[in-house]
Structures are given as C-alpha cells and as structure tokens.
Amino acid sequence: MKKASSRRPPKRIVGRRELVDFPQFQLRGVEAKVDTGAFTGAIHCSTIYVDTLPDGRPLLRVLLLDDAHPAFDGTPLQFAEFSLRDIRSSNGEVQERYVIRTAIRLFGEDFDAEFSLSDRSDMKYPVLIGRALLRRARLVVDVARRNVSYKSQHRPIPD
C-alpha cells in the first residue's frame, strides 16, 4: 500500500478548448486549443525578432497576439532567455521556432510551460496546449467539453 504522502493529485478534466490566462503578460481569457497531437504548446505572435544587446547577448522581442485579438495592446515583450528549436508543424513540416518558458493559468493554478512562438494568424485559436503541459498539470481531455477550467473558477466567460 502506498503512503499518503506519495500520492499524486487527481487528474482534472479540460475541454477541447479552454480559456487561459498568462499572468506574466497580463493576458486573461485567451482562447486555447488543447491538442494531444502537439508536444510543445504554441502562442501566436505577430512580430518576432532578435536584437543584440551592447554586450553581445541576444534579446528576443515579440508582439504576442495581433490587433485582431481583444487582449492585444501593442506592448512588445522581451525575453533574454529563449531557445531556437526545430518544431514539427501540424502539416508535418519542420520549422525553426523560438521557444520561451512562461506561466499559464488553468484551474486558478499557474503551471510553468514551454511555448513556441509562431504566426498562428491562419489558425482559429491563438494558443495551443500540448502534451507536455497536459502531463505536467495532470490534465485529461474530454472533447465534448469546453472552458472547464474557467467555469471551475466561477468567473464569467468573456464573449
């Protein structure tokens, strides 16, 4: 019999689509598609470029979302810590993308996760939640449900 202290928290159910918050970016209620076929999550960026600081270090500058999104405020974000990786897109192509770590809030709890940055303007949802976050946060997907996390927090869902 296992000790009570070694028990993992129970798994929680998320829907195929969730509204998520990114507290470090002051973004709330961003639509996300839960995609068990993707390993890493993704966030839509309308502008992505790297500057070089005077000391030679690279600085990633991005505009999250775009002016079509209600949460877009045009404020550029900067990341001193980032990586460049090969990511396989939904159509099977391998693309080189910048990857950052940030907190995503689900069920009122913040989870540290990696997100690739890409132009998702042709996609329906600006954020993709992949398997890595689902596993770490102990989430399972019920494709018949939506916005389970937001509803559990007793917050009104934005229109």
UniProtKB/TrEMBL annotation:
Q: Check the record and name the SUPFAM superfamilies matching this protein.
A: Acid proteases
**What keywords were assigned to this record?**
Hydrolase, Protease
Residues of the signal peptide: none
Residue stretches making up the Retropepsin-like aspartic endopeptidase domain: 13-150
UniProt key word Protease: yes
Q: Give me any GO biological process, just one.
A: proteolysis
User: What's an example of a GO molecular-function annotation for this chain?
Assistant: peptidase activity
Keyword Signal recorded: no
Gene3D superfamilies attached here?
Answer: Acid Proteases
Q: Which PANTHER family match?
A: ATP-DEPENDENT ZINC PROTEASE DOMAIN-CONTAINING PROTEIN-RELATED, ZN_PROTEASE DOMAIN-CONTAINING PROTEIN
Protein name from the UniProt record:
ATP-dependent zinc protease
